[in-house]
Amino acid sequence: MMKTVLLSLSALALISTVAQAQNVFWRDSNDGTVGANWVGGFGSGGGETPGASNTAVISGSDVLDTTVIYVDSAVTSPAGLEFRDRGATLQIRSGGSLASGALVLRNTFNQGAFNLSIQGGTFTLNSTAWSAGNRLNLTVSSGNMVFNPGGNNSNGLIQGDSIVSISGGTVELGDARITLTDVSNFNWTGGTLSNVNRFQGDGVASQTLTNGGGTFFVNTNTRTDDFMGYNNGTGTTAFAINADGTTDAELSQYTGGEAWDLTTGIVAVDFGSGYTPLIGDSWDFTDLSAGTDFLGSTANIASTSADGNWNVTWDTSSWVSDGVLGITNVTVIPEPSTAVLLGLGLFGLMAGRRRRA
Question: In which domain, by residue range, is 70 found?
Answer without folding.
Answer: 5-356
